[in-house]
Design a protein that fits this description.
globular, alpha+beta, binds zinc ion, HIT family, subunit A, five-stranded antiparallel beta sheet, binds guanosine-5'-monophosphate
């Protein structure tokens, strides 16, 4: 997707603090961190949001969770962490390329704001 910010990051057109990459996903530091650890995990494939996934994405979505777990361990988030997907307007999604926020290093409240 030519106009997609995260597709541009995948293509290397916009620099980021990359923390993990494989053939399916990319993970990088959020530009506006909301916690001591704030990593975005995205598929390299353009999918607009969780509203737009299909059966063919099942393995990819599972893989993202395994990457999140691995990055949490690497960042010593031994007391827990939060994995967030904001979907659509009501979910607070601002970038229309599906992504998961791995947040850690502090205690989070519930319910979320
Ligand atoms: P959303 O609000 O869609 O769930 O999350 C989008 C996230 O992308 C926000 O936390 C925002 O700070 C982050 N973000 C937006 N633009 C950039 C960018 O150019 N680089 C990086 N690393 N993060 C970005
Ligand atoms: Zn995209």
């Amino acid at each position: 997707m030519a106009d997609c910010l995260f597709c541009k990051i995948v293509a290397g057109e916009i620099p980021t603090n990359k923390v993990y990459e494989d053939d399916k996903v990319l993970a990088f530091g959020d530009i506006n961190p909301q916690a001591p650890v704030h990593i975005l995990i995205i598929p390299k494939k353009h999918i607009k949001s969780l509203e737009d996934v299909s059966n063919e994405d099942v393995e990819l979505l599972g893989h993202i969770q395994l990457v999140a777990s691995k990055l949490a361990k690497e960042n010593n988030l031994n007391d827990g962490y939060r994995l967030v997907n904001n979907c659509g307007v009501d979910g607070g999604q601002t970038v229309a390329h599906i992504h998961y926020h791995l947040l850690g290093g502090r205690t989070f409240g519930w319910p979320p704001g």
